[in-house]
Predict the 3D structure of the following.
Amino acid sequence: MTPRDRAVVAAARGVIGARFRVQGRDPAFGLDCVGVVAVSLRGAGYAGAIPGDYALRGGCVTEIVARFNAAGLERGTTAMPGGIALFDAGCRQWHLAVIVPGGIVHADAMLRRVVERPGPPPWTLIGCWHLQDDRGE
């Protein structure tokens, strides 16, 4: 893992236990999956835009992928720790998570909190993006 990947993982793990809140961006008040990713990226020094105008269901996955590609994140071919993963959770429901060693950190709407889920995620991976490391690693 690069230093930035380690920082993303540490920031994601730092919000485990935060309550779930639709379109939440502050761990003190609650986070959704985009909020978990935003806090994790910010914790690793990312200063780019974090989308706030998105549909809870539906939406075009091509547009979501284009936003990630335009955000200065580097698309990878596999889900590696420190990566931001976009999943197809079914029924035109997209879900984001942070890949950590041994699993993912994500906002679980059913459990109503941010959790670390061990093992492989149950959803189909659409793509995974990483912050570029300051040292070019």
In short: The chain has a mean pLDDT of 88. The radius of gyration is 13 Å. The beta strands are 25-26, 30-31, 74-76, 84-88, 94-100, 103-108, 113-118, 124-130. The chain is about 25% helix and 30% strand.
